[in-house]
Amino acid sequence: MSSTPETIIEFDTVNKWYASNGYHVLRDISLKFHKGEKVVICGPSGSGKSTLIRCVNALEDYQEGRLTVDGTVVGDDLKGIDRVRREVGMVFQQFNLFPHLTVLENLILSPTWVSRLPRKEAIDRAMAQLERVRIAEHALKYPLQLSGGQQQRVAIARALCLTPKIMLFDEPTSALDPEMIKEVLDVMIGLADQGMTMLCVTHEMGFAKAVADRVIFMDQGQVVEQNTPDAFFNHPQHERSRDFLSKILGH
Questions:
Q1: Burial of 10 (0-12, 13-18, 19+ CB in 10 A)
Q2: What is the phi/psi pair of residue 13, to 5°?
Q3: ∠ CA 16-219-40 to the nearest 5 degrees?
Q4: pLDDT averaged over consecutive 10-residue blocks of the chain (251 residues)?
Q5: How far is C-alpha 7 from the chain's CA centre?
Q6: 3-class SS at 79?
Q7: Can you tell me the distance from the alpha carbon of 62 to that of 221, in angstroms, rounded to the nearest whole number?
Q8: Rounded to an integer, what distance in angstroms lies between the CA atom of residue 168 and that of residue 200?
Q9: Which of 130, 153, 156, 164 is most buried, by CB atoms within 10 Å?
């Protein structure tokens, strides 16, 4: 038996240009992500990191190369995109909760409509995920009655209700006040401990050190460096990585 880890996402020479201005946002990206791997993607603003993870669930398209997610090629095939989106949960900077629905109603909406789950089963699943993110006592409140950190935990629970194999996080703490960041990161650390495949775009370097199996540093649409957190933070190989770390860590 080979002990080679199973690849769950593969970018093979992927290129993307923005149609509006021709900007080359992803340049020859070739990356493999393994099942159960926790990867933090960092880099300066405009480096392509959010676009990279948004390609995984086809929120962004690409023009060249090949992207495979759990055996499905992400491209123009709508059935394939649908299949991928059922396996990939995503949490954004903004919580994107429906303000006129309770927390519980926000969570059961997609499972009952998209997955055709019976309502009782959807409620049971939603409550289990709210327990998982430690916010079950707020199930009947409306989003605006909650703090930003609580709303982001609800957004994580909502993504988990579709039982994804992969979770994508796009700067999930950047819209939060500093005192709320820790509660969201604690939930994400809990998910990492349970073996979830996670790709996380974040500037929270403490989280990267604590959780990541690998750190990928991007700049100008390219992967400049990738390494273990220990090697990346203590012995960055490239001038651009060193410059980025000195700005973000203040040394």
A1: middle
A2: 50, 50
A3: 95
A4: 79 93 94 96 94 95 96 90 92 93 96 89 96 95 96 95 93 90 92 91 91 96 96 94 88 54
A5: 17
A6: helix
A7: 13
A8: 6
A9: 153
